[in-house]
Amino acid sequence: MSESTQLLSERSWPGAIGRLTRYARAAKVRVVARRLDGQADDSLTDVLRAVKVHSTVYCVSELGAPWGFRVEGSSAAKFHLVLDGSCVLTLETGEEAALACGDLVLLPMGTGHAVRDRSDSDVRHLDRILAEFRPDDDGPLIYGGSGAQTRLVCGGFVLADSLPTRLLGLLPRVLRLDAASSGVNRWLEPVFELLREEVDGARPGAGAVLAKLADVFITQVLRTYLLGAEAGGLVHTESFRDPAVARAVELLHAQPDRAWRVAALAGDVGMSRTLFCTRFRALVGESPMRYLARVRLSQAAGYLTTTNATLYAIAQSTGYDSEASLSKAFKRAFGQSPGAYRRERARQPIRIADNAHAENGRG
Questions:
Q1: Measuring CA to CA, how many Å separate 347 from each of 51, 89, 226, 272, 306?
Q2: Contact in structure between 63 and 149 (CB atoms under 8 Å)
Q3: What are phi and psi of 185, to 5 degrees?
Q4: Is residue 264 very low, low, confident or very high in pLDDT (cuts 50, 70, 90)?
Q5: Residue 220 CA: distances (Å) to CA of 51, 57, 223
Q6: At the fourth CATH level, which superfamily is domain 237-358?
Q7: What is the DSSP string of 152-215?
Q8: Which CATH number does the domain 49-230 belong to among 3.40.50.1010, 2.60.120.280, 3.30.420.40, 1.10.357.20?
Q9: What's the pLDDT band for 4 if we cut at 50, 70, 90?
Q10: What are the angstrom distances between the C-alpha of 219 and each of 40, 47, 114, 306, 310?
Q11: Alpha-carbon separation of residue 256 from 18, 278, 307, 361 (angstroms)
């Protein structure tokens, strides 16, 4: 080898290594892509792909204890994300949940609620607080006393697709994502830190960035709920493939106290009784009346966990004629009486993934 050839070879070698490395990486990416493309889509994948979240950040709040604000109920879905500190969320219906740093809570139905540093703190209407303590629409809300500090990102969201609109009707009044317990902390933590950086930096366009980052969290809440609820038998995403069956499922969730008959349900969705029963069982995996029983017991379990309603009131709300009939069905499905279930759940934190399984797992 001549001196010039050897010199050329030595100079070319690092470049060749670089080209080979880039080629190998590209080939690996193509292999992974082919594997992903080759995976068959299931119904849950279809639903999640259709969930298109568009968030609006109303304000970033810096709150010192004691503090509290109230939000009136409306048709607009809402969310609160705890950046620092802790707080308590109380729905107008009586449900209450303690929120810690990193927790995200969604109110898909726009249910009225209060958020405060502790359950006994006074609350004021949020609109009045914003008018008095937030002179700059682009700046943070600074409110409260000189006690422990809490930072919240508060906003609203819409699901921009007709399929998720049906899904929205199946969601409970409140959903909570606890990143530490739901198994998603590893990849949500960097997104959470980006949110913090945007809030701390207060750079131009921060509102738009915050909204996009909030989209990630909200989509994950819906995904977590769907996975848990489908595993527990409460939500059958296969049903979304058929508009009539999807509408029937939505009706059963929305009106569990109605004295349903199969023929009436079939008529409500525009199908014959025979065809409806066949299609419902094929997509949901059980008969309409058996599925209704599961929905009723699931909602009863939810009331027992999150409200102080009497057993009689819960029975009336979920379609049972008496406390005795609810107690009998509940014990058969959950292995314990409603009173024992309420006492046991009162000692456990509320988790959306837990609820989806616990309320359906024994049914």
A1: 34, 17, 25, 47, 12
A2: yes
A3: -60, -35
A4: very high
A5: 10, 17, 5
A6: Homeodomain-like (1.10.10.60)
A7: EEEEEEEE-SHHHHHHHTTS-S-EEE-TTTTT-HHHHHHHHHHHHHHHHH--TTHHHHHHHHHH
A8: 2.60.120.280
A9: very low
A10: 22, 11, 23, 24, 35
A11: 64, 22, 18, 19
Alpha carbon separation from 200 to 79, 83, 150, 185 (Å, rounded): 20, 11, 14, 21
Q: Phi and psi for 217 in degrees, rounded to 5?
A: -65, -45
Q: Which backbone phi and psi does 5 adopt, to 5 degrees? A: -65, -40
Query: What's the token pair of residue 303?
Result: 């009331």
* Location of structure tokens 């199969």: 262
Rounded distance, CA 137 to CA 154, Å?
Answer: 14
Q: Domain residues of the chain, as ranges?
A: 3-39, 49-230, 237-358
The single-letter code of the amino acid at 162 is S
Name the strand (E) or helix (H) holding 105. strand 104-107
Read off the pLDDT of each residue in 204-227 and give the average, rounded to a whole number: 71
Residues 6+ apart with CB under 8 A from 185: 102, 179
Closest listed residue to residue 153, CA positions, set 240, 108, 212: 212
d(CA 345, CA 30): 48
Higher pLDDT pick, 333 / 15: 333
Mean pLDDT on 213-234: 71
